[in-house]
Amino acid sequence: MNTTAVQPVSISGRSSLIRLSLVRGLLAIAWALAFAAAHDPLNAVALTLLIAYPLIDAVSSAIDWLAVPEGSERRVTALNGALSTLAAIALGIAGAAGGVAAVLAVFGIWATISGAAQLAVGLYRRGPTLGKQWPTLISGGLSFLVGAVYVAQATGPSPSLDVLSVYATGGGIFFIAQAALLVWKSRSQPTTGQV
Q1: Is the pTM higher than 0.85?
Q2: Which residues contact 163 (CB under 8 A, 6 or more apart)?
């Protein structure tokens, strides 16, 4: 990757990314708590939560897209937002028609694709302005791998949605860690118009 071609993120853009990571992390943990309490049986409340989770990702991708300059990273973020919107629709259909196994398979496919996108964005953002991005890279890598496991579990004898709360909790913790590292990075650098 040619890091010299990546435009620097402005101070306001970095502040937006800090807020976005923190809010996204807190929302993921809140979602995990709500879903853990509501997913069995797979009723209207659980289905609403299932649809909401990728929509949170889609809205986050839109906010992220607005916070960064033009470039490949921005295109990956836009693509992830579109795929997350499609995942919300697919989860709604799977939950209404197919039940637990179908939901787990759709969620797994989305987690794999979304994790790959998160890895790509983390790699683009590695550098002096936004740091090493290790929480984003670990979270994206785990999402990619765990998503594949969920797809495999969906075809097994007793698929369960219990794992989705664990997935969201882990993602939330990594987003909060990324926000904390961005805050630390912004305090360790001089404040100028472009950083």
Answers
A1: no
A2: 104, 146, 150, 153
